Amino acid sequence: MTYCLGIKVKSGIVAIADTRLTSGNECSTGKKIFVHQRDQHSLFIMTSGLRSVRDKAITYFKEILEVNDRVYDKMYKAVNSLAEQLRRVAEEDKAFLVKGGLFFDLYAIIGGQLENDDSHKLFLLYPQGNWIEIGDDGSPFIIIGNSGYGKPILNRTITQDSTLNFCLKTGLLSFDSTRVSANDVDFPIDVVLYEKDSYQLIEHRIYREEVKEVTEYWQNKLSTAIQTLPEKWMEPVLAKLGQTQLLV
Fold first, then answer.
1. Which residue in 102, 129, 207, 246 has the fewest CB atoms around it within 10 Å?
2. DSSP string spanning 33-99?
3. How confident is the model over 188-226, as pLDDT tens digits?
């Protein structure tokens, strides 16, 4: 499984991806973010799904970029091109994968800003090649892969006005919530930051030891917060528990 998170706020984009690769009982580390940076062409792709489908689709897309990079002056055009390559892989491999008992499965988060975009963009691409834009009118984030455990903290805190600093901190805690609840994602994590209109993607890899103090601090704070929660609302319930004990 995978954990890939994209957050789009007014000031820019934060992307986080785990690096755990699982093949049977074997685990290894590998990069799940592809970054393309050239002049005013700044985009990244994160994927979740079959690694063979991912590798082939990204390889085809990279070849297209080498020839037609300047044709893609807006993000949606690049996303359409990636969708075409994904459909191409489906035509070539889907029947054989299904025959072997595997699903043709690849989700992608694509973000960045190209020269004629009015602002930075974030998209979710489905295995069928259709896509949606993560926009100002809806949720400012999207998770692919193991998405259930990390959503609550994001839902409660992230808004369009959140800073990139706040999004990065919250994204780390979202990932850590997933990591402690599932054994199929783990450190290190790759981070990409994009500031609106900068046309400059910042990449960085974060290791467990570097944020150990932060994750332990958060865990202790959660425990303390629960201990100090108001308890008056519990009294009717505990009273019934006491009555039950008397009956016994």
1. 246
2. EEEEEETTEEEEEEEEE-HHHHHHHHHHHHHHHHHHGGG--SHHHHHHHHHHHHHHHHHHHHHHHHH
3. 999 999 999 999 999 999 999 999 999 999 999 999 999
Amino acid at 16: I
Helix, coil or strand: residue 106: strand
Please state, in angstroms and rounded to a whole number, the distance separating the CA atoms of residues 160 and 166.
Answer: 11
- Written as one string, the DSSP assignment of 107-129 is EEEEEEE-TT-SS-EEEEE-TTS
Q: Which residues are CB-neighbours of 216 under 8 A, at least 6 positions away?
A: none
- Taking residues 46-74, report their average pLDDT: 94
Cβ proximity of 154 and 165 under 8 Å = no
Residue 191 CB contacts under 8 Å (≥ 6 apart), including other chains: 14, 15, 16, 168, 203, 204, 205, 206
**Residue 15 is encoded by which pair of tokens?**
């992307």
Encoded tokens for 158: 């992230």
Q: What phi and psi, each to the nearest 5 degrees, are found at residue 182?
A: -140, 145
Give the Cα separation of 179 and 59 in Å (integer). 29
8 A C-beta contact, residue 142 and residue 124: yes
* Domains of the chain, earliest start first: 3-206 (3.60.20.10)
In the chain, the N- to C-terminal Cα span, in Å, equals 48
Query: Cβ neighbours of residue 185 under 8 Å, at least 6 residues apart?
Result: 1, 2, 3, 18, 20, 145, 146, 175, 178, 179
